[in-house]
Task: structure prediction
Amino acid sequence: MKTFKTLTVLLFLLAANVGYAQKNQERIMSLKVAHISNAIALTPEEAVDFWPIYNKYATEMKTIEKEMRRDLKGAKPEKSIEDMSDAEANNILLKRMTQKQTIMKLKNDQITALKKVVSAKKLLKLQKAEREFRKNLLQEYRKRKVNK
Result:
């Protein structure tokens, strides 16, 4: 019975933590949308067409980047790069090159699709806004980490 109570408490804490993390992700995404919309001066008409295209490609790129991180860790998390054989390292390199090519193709497709909605100037501003947002997000994270 005590094990059941402990397990119930752990599951509750895990669920609360997942909910908190998801809420933070949603908050970060809403801040990113606001930052980008403001930085590139999206009109409401442009935004209606812009965000579905942007989000589609962002989701696809995020999936590939997660896969790249997972592949680098390898099937066995305790196995470091030093412990890999040359064949394993070569396979990972080839896969990463393919993934990076896929990301570049996605970025090209995204730009082509977005150019139908907004100007090339706004797309350059978009790239700058994305870099600024990542930079600000990392600075905020570091600041909060130090203050804890």
In short: The helical segments are 2-39, 44-73, 86-115, 120-147. Residues 3-17 have pLDDT under 50 and may be disordered.
